[in-house]
Design a protein that fits this description.
single chain, mainly alpha
């Protein structure tokens, strides 16, 4: 298994297991609260952390799958060569923003690690849930670089999937 396929499996696993676990923990907590008149005080904190991992890894996976929203009605008016430059500019701007936030998230997570604080209810080191930020952003950077490479090589002209063009191509292939 190559690195790219391994990352894809890891991302899908984090997303699937995170959503399933959050759903099960919330369901169990509701049943415990309304049926047995008790509950688990730590469930809401755990679910918040699970969702943070799911959202950040899921956003990174969105770049891989091309599922982020893209409005390119104006861009489509340009020649393919100009569309390529616009797409590369978009990738560069995304990399600039994500890279900056990534840099600050590493600094912030390192500072939390140095403080040694524990989470309120779970009593785990607080840097562990916060690690979702640099991990998710690091995956975003990796996938943006892959998209940029695909644009440079002429495999695509977009950061996002073009569902209309894909559907039209499938119809033409029939």
């Amino acid at each position: 298994m190559n690195l790219d396929k391994g990352l894809e499996v890891l991302e899908k696993t984090v997303i699937t297991v995170g959503l399933a676990a959050a759903t099960l923990f919330l369901f169990d907590n509701v049943v415990a609260r309304y049926v047995f008149h008790s509950g688990f005080t730590w469930v809401l904190e755990l679910v918040q952390y699970l969702f943070a991992w799911v959202v950040l890894v899921g956003a990174a996976h969105g770049f891989r799958a091309g599922t982020h929203l893209g409005i390119d009605i104006l861009v489509e008016k340009f020649s393919p060569a100009m569309q390529k430059y616009i797409a590369l500019l978009a990738v560069f701007l995304c990399l600039l923003f994500v890279g900056l936030v990534f840099w600050y998230s590493i600094q912030y997570t390192t500072r939390i690690y140095e403080w040694g604080d524990l989470t309120l209810d779970l009593q785990i080191p607080q840097w562990i849930p916060y690690l979702a930020i640099p991990v998710g952003l690091g995956l975003m950077i990796l996938h943006l670089l892959q998209v940029g490479w695909d644009i440079l090589k002429g495999k695509t002209l977009r950061i996002h999937a073009n569902e209309a063009a894909d559907a039209l191509k499938q119809v033409e292939d029939i």
